[in-house]
Amino acid sequence: MKLEMRDSPGQLVAALKPISDVGGNIIAVIHQREPERDHDTLSVQIVLELPEGKRDKLIKLLKEQGVHVQRIGEKRLLFKRTVILIGHLMHTDLSDTVDRIDSTGFAEVSDLAMSMPAVNDRSSSRITIRAVSKKDMASAMTILRQVARQKSLLLVEPLEDTA
Amino acid sequence: MKIALLGLGSVGRGVAEMVDKKDLGITITAVADSKSGYMDPAGVDIPSLLARKKKTGHCGDTGITVADIIKKATYDALVEVSPTNALTGEPSTEYIRAALGRKKHVVTSNKGPVSLAGKDLRALARKKGVAFRYEATVAGAIPVMHLLEHGLSGNEILSISGVLNGTCNYILTRMADEGLTYDQALLEAREMGYAEADPTYDVQGIDAAIKLVILTNAIWDTGKKLADVERTGIDLLTADALRLAEEDGCTIRLIAESCPKTHVLRVSPRILSKNHPLVVEGTLNALTLTTDMAKEITLIGRGAGSVETASAIIGDLLYIRDQYARRA
Ligand SMILES: NC(=O)c1ccc[n+]([C@@H]2O[C@H](COP(=O)([O-])OP(=O)(O)OC[C@H]3O[C@@H](n4cnc5c(N)ncnc54)[C@H](OP(=O)(O)O)[C@@H]3O)[C@@H](O)[C@H]2O)c1
After folding, report:
1. pTM of the full predicted structure?
2. Which B-chain residues 250-269 have CB contacts (< 8 A) with chain A?
């Protein structure tokens, strides 16, 4: 997400602590002149990554710090797809399966629920994948299909896309 | 209208019973089963036919063959309701060819001939100036072929997707509702008479794939075959998988999909939101047609059953009678 605030003294510093408190990760701090506005002031943009569901908490903390947030632009991992994988998930290294998605950099496994049946039975898991664009999601799904084929896992996909 | 009935099993009996019970203007003039045949140009007495079949296992005289009936009996339309041979389509394809060759209309519920030789048979019927109709082959009682030909004529059909196998849908419904394992639900489906002793054809999605091929070729005339369908069955699904879907407000159904534009021709278990229109219960079938003008249309109904399937066959017969009477 992107936070935008006036670059008045102390504002930037005050913003940093709440971000680290909620486990956020600052990617870039950009100072910008805004010609259409007051010529003498700068605005500052903070580009950061936030864990799921921490947005409201961060805004609250920033307010408490007296930071005036002008604009919040969100570029969330917009596309979500939940699939079910069935098979010998542990024997076939589930964390590697998840890694193959996470390591793409454009998609990630945001949720994983799993059943634990008797040792030699096939297990089932529900995996939610998020990606920024439809195209990235399609690439992630292609990877997952390949992995499922390699590992002889049954991949059950949703019939429809969910945004 | 005079009909010759080839097969007196579940579907054949349903047709005979409805012809007897309802005033449809249809007369059965010939019947055959696997071992015998019976002809009466004045009209077969249906109650005694059904009683005879029940008592002796034969519908008529063992000296009368199917070939005799097709070639010699007096009839306007052949109703071909013998068992499906998904690999060769025989002997039914030959029966149908012979009847069309005699300029007789043919109505069938048999997926073998339609999926394997549909194009040829349609062409032969056209050449002979008769009808070849097969509403009952796909989704039982649901009149999808009639809808495509008439109600939606003028529409471009963009894609179809649906639940085309009642046995799989029953198994998945029971797994979801009762937490049964696949094996338990299959056993129950067998006890209820919904699954065959060898369930392969249903649970591996072959039956749904054949129906998908029939629909696809009927709509787009693309000459698809069973081998062209990307197919995954339901036999490897777990009760846990259904529970995990359920926790997310979803369920799993075996979905057949065809969309020429995206080159999709597929039968596979899929996750659907529980309020999705294709999520139907028990042995029901459902089908969504997406078109340029009408957009989505979803049909839900019984995909099998004696009288239900007879409904589709009788619909075809009466349509033929009306069409050809008007033309004559
Ligand atoms: N049941 C349904 O709900 C349903 C729904 C849609 C489509 N269908 C299709 O409709 C067809 C009939 O199904 P069904 O359930 O009625 O099957 P069924 O109960 O097994 O009956 C088949 C009938 O065909 C007869 N027969 C077998 N071989 C024959 C041959 N070579 N020539 C003439 N008759 C022959 C059998 O004779 P015997 O009586 O001597 O054994 C029997 O009377 C199948 O192709 C099936 O796939 C069925």
Report:
1. 0.86
2. 250, 252, 255, 268-269
